[in-house]
Every structure is written in structure tokens, then in C-alpha cells.
Design goal:
The protein is α/β, with parallel strands linked by helices. The protein folds into 2 domains: 6-174, Phosphoglycerate kinase, N-terminal domain (Rossmann fold, 3-Layer(aba) Sandwich); 182-407, Phosphoglycerate kinase, N-terminal domain (Rossmann fold), CATH 3.40.50. Helices cover 34% and strands 19% of the residues. It is built from 16 helices and 19 strands. The protein has helices spanning 39-42, 45-53, 78-87, 101-110, 133-140, 159-167, 174-188, 207-213, 224-233, 257-267, 309-313, 325-336, 357-368, 378-387, 401-407, 413-416; strands at 15-19, 26-29, 32-35, 57-61, 91-95, 115-119, 145-148, 170-172, 194-198, 219-222, 271-273, 280-282, 284-285, 289-293, 302-305, 319-323, 340-344, 372-376, 395-397. The strands form 5 sheets. It has a 6-stranded parallel beta sheet, with helices on both faces. A 6-stranded parallel beta sheet has the order 13-10-9-17-18-19, sandwiched between helices. Strands 15-14-16 form a 3-stranded antiparallel beta sheet. The protein is elongated.
């Protein structure tokens, strides 16, 4: 995918509108809101500093959460502004009311070169999500060119990512380029064997990536709540285990995810061989055993052999809350010998010690393999943090749904407008 980027141009002495993703978690301490995880903020620094070096003024645009008129105060970007002030030596200005065009233009014009402005939360205004033409025109009036450095919102047709890219000369920022490169390499030229690990609770946002990646990867290892749909599809009862039955996307209402899982299995019955191994390997691999318990709060789990008719028929009214030891061993062996690994979604309820072992061991294997490793998804990143393997991953994506849509083979609206 070839897109216009800052690397191709030498933009000087202008005002840049940069769409960043500062949708970061906040905590309250001593009556003050503070940034608890600044990694998304830090990822924007390279783009900002490249433009500051060339004497540009910069306007940072971002959203935070899903504010309503009654909850706007708790979603203010002021804590992010305070974080930037404490951690960077930039000349910073916070602009809470950028709808006042005349006043805002004067503030920007009167400021010296290399000033960095942060506008208040874009989603205070419904015109952002509706890509309102007047709102786009207002934002565009403040800058000479636009930089999209927010891959994580590029699947949206919103004013600040899609509208601005049509209204101004537009370029990809350095963080966005890193994301595009990492995921394009997975789709176009992965080193083999290429192993994909998919878990998490919801299957709705994983279906299309699984279908597309099944055409590319050597094997897809399924865990978490997603696995329950595949188990049920092959006739293994899952009892009280979680099965997503309420699609997040209203367009998918009426979709039976067990049937979809069944079709994916049927479409991928072809056998593959892994590097130097002569053991036939199914493309889609789901658990052969699980850790089960009556509830999430159980302090002890029970290993259920899913290949044992006796155990399956007598297992009781249980929930499958982690992959079992045999599945963990199999998955680890496949991951360790891989040359490329993509992982999205934990293997179980990793927040609970009783059901954390599967996710912990997968994290260890992904960190240990000598292959290229790419990890995405908020829960997966949290698991890497919890078990201490974050620094051992080659590329950790800050994107969520946008990354999954990209891996589905879809064109993201805000990237399409940047194409050469």
C-alpha cells in the first residue's frame, strides 16, 4: 500500500493539523485526573518533533472516550495537555473553544513558530462523527496541511480523519506508517511458518480477520471465548461457556457465529506442513482440552479432555475459562518454531490467577520465539504487561478495530484518501 507520507516531503514554516490518538486511560489521584498509560501519546512524538524541526506550528486533534453533553467534563483532554507539559519542552497551548473561529485563528497566528496547540475533545461535537462539511471546513481553516497519525481511528469516516484528508494536502504520520508497515508485512510477505493466535471473548470482530488470514497463515490457533464457537461447531457441547450471541455491529444481527465457525472449518480442511515437520497440520486449530469451573470466581479449575467422550459427558455444568495443558503445550510448540507470529486476544480469563496459565504461557512463547512477532488488542497488551513480556515483542500495535479491519483485507476510509 503506497500512501503520501511525511517522509516524502519537506514541509516547512507552515501550520500542521495532526490527528493523533490520545484516547488513553486516566486515573484520579488526589482529586486530579492523570494519564495512567501514555504509550499512545508517546507514539506521536516522532511525527511532532519532525515537524517542529522544520519550524512548523502544530495543532493536535484527538478524541477521548464517548462523551455526552452531561459527561463532557470527565472526558476533557486537559489531563493529556498537563502530561505533555510535564514531559516535553514544547511551547504548548490548550484551546478549549476552537468553534470560535476568529479568536482561535488569532491565537494561532500570533503564536511563535514551533508552538504546539492541543484542541479540546473532538467528540464534544456530534459533527465530528457525522463528518459534517461545515465542521471539516472549520478545522481545515486552522492549518495548511493535514497529517493522519491515528491508525486506530482510520476505519472511521469521521471529520478529523476522513474529512480533513479530503479538504487539505494530506500525509501519513510516522506512527501510522509503522502500523501500516507491520500489518502489510503480515498480509503480503510473512516469513514462514506464519502462525496466528486468536482469542478474546468476542468472535464478532474476529470473524473477517480469521477468514482472510486463513488464506495466508500456515495455522490459526484459537482460544478464549472465540474457541467456544468452533468447539460447538464441531459438536462439542460447551455448557455454560460464553458464546457471543449479541453482535456489536447491528448490521450483523441474526448472524449465527457457530455456523460461521463451522463454515470456516469446512473451508480450511486442507492440511499444511510446518517447516521441517512432516506432521499434517489443520489450518484452524482449536483446544483439545480446557480449564473449566462453575464460574469466573472459582478458586480452582478442572482439566477437561475434549477428546474424551467420558469426560465430556460427565463434566457437569461448567464454563471453559482457559485452554488446557495439552493445548497450551501444542500452541507453544507451534509458536516457538514460527518465523512470523500475530497474536490478538487472551486464551482465557487471564485476570484471574486460576485461569491465567494459558495466556501467560502463550505470552512467554511469543516473546521467546526468534520469529517476527506482532501483537494487537487492548486485552492482549494488558496481558503482556501483567506477565512482563511487553518489551520482548517486535511490534505492539496500539490499534484495535482498525487493525482487525485492515487484516480483514478491507480498505480503511482514512487510508484510502492518502493513497498515491
Amino acid at each position: 500500500m503506497k500512501i503520501h507520507s511525511l517522509l516524502d516531503y519537506n514541509l516547512k514554516n507552515k501550520t500542521a493539523l495532526i490527528r493523533v490518538d490520545y484516547n488513553v486511560p486516566l486515573i484520579e489521584k488526589n482529586g486530579q485526573k492523570l494519564v495512567s498509560d501514555p504509550r499512545r501519546i508517546i507514539s506521536s512524538y516522532d511525527t511532532i518533533e519532525k515537524l517542529l524541526t522544520n519550524n512548523n506550528k502544530i495543532i493536535l486533534l484527538s478524541h477521548l472516550g464517548r462523551p455526552t453533553p452531561s459527561t463532557q467534563r470527565q472526558f476533557s483532554l486537559l489531563p493529556i495537555f498537563n502530561y505533555l507539559q510535564k514531559n516535553k519542552s514544547w511551547q504548548l497551548v490548550f484551546i478549549p473553544d476552537y468553534l470560535n473561529q476568529e479568536k482561535t485563528q488569532k491565537i494561532i497566528k500570533d503564536a511563535p513558530a514551533k508552538t504546539v496547540f492541543l484542541f479540546e475533545n473532538l467528540r464534544y461535537h456530534p459533527e465530528e462523527k457525522s463528518n459534517d462539511k461545515k465542521f471539516v471546513k472549520l478545522l481545515a481553516s486552522y492549518g495548511d496541511f493535514f497529517v493522519n497519525d491515528a491508525f486506530s481511528t482510520s476505519h472511521r469516516g469521521h471529520a478529523s480523519v476522513y474529512g480533513l484528508a479530503q479538504a487539505l494536502p494530506s500525509f501519513a504520520g510516522l506512527a501510522l506508517l509503522s502500523e501500516v508497515k507491520a500489518f502489510t508485512n503480515l498480509l503480503d510477505k510473512p516469513r514462514r511458518p506464519f502462525i496466528v493466535v486468536v482469542g478474546g471473548a468476542k468472535i464478532s470482530d474476529k470473524i473477517n480477520p480469521i477468514v482472510n488470514l486463513a488464506k495466508i497463515a500456515d495455522a490459526i490457533l484459537i482460544g478464549g471465548g472465540v474457541a467456544n464457537n468452533f468447539l460447538k461447531a464441531v459438536g462439542i457441547a460447551v455448557q455454560k461457556s460464553y458464546l457471543q450471541d449479541v453482535p456489536a455491529d447491528l448490521k450483523k444481527q441474526g448472524l449465527n457465529y457457530v455456523s460461521v465457525a463451522d463454515q470456516i472449518i469446512l473451508d480450511n480442511l486442507n492440511q499444511r506442513l510446518l517447516k521441517d515437520n512432516y506432521i499434517p497440520l489443520p489450518k484452524i486449530i482449536y483446544p483439545v482440552d480446557v480449564i473449566a469451573a462453575p464460574s469466573f470466581d472459582a478458586t480452582k479449575g478442572r482439566v477437561i479432555e475434549l477428546t474424551s467422550n467420558e469426560q465430556i459427558s460427565n463434566r457437569g455444568n461448567l464454563m471453559y475459562l482457559d485452554i488446557g495443558p495439552k493445548t497450551t503445550k501444542l500452541y507453544k510448540e507451534l509458536i516457538i518454531q514460527a518465523e512470523t507470529v500475530f497474536w490478538n486476544g487472551p486464551m482465557g480469563i487471564y485476570e484471574k490467577k486460576t485461569f491465567a496459565q494459558g495466556t501467560k504461557e502463550i505470552a512467554r512463547a511469543v516473546a521467546k520465539t526468534s520469529g517476527v512477532t506482532v501483537v494487537g488488542g487492548g486485552d492482549t497488551i494488558a496481558a503482556l504487561d501483567k506477565f512482563g513480556y511487553y518489551q520482548s515483542i517486535d511490534y505492539v500495535s496500539m490499534a484495535g478495530s482498525a487493525a482487525l479491519e485492515f487484516l480483514s483485507g478491507k480498505k480503511l476510509p482514512a487510508l484510502a484518501v492518502l493513497e498515491k
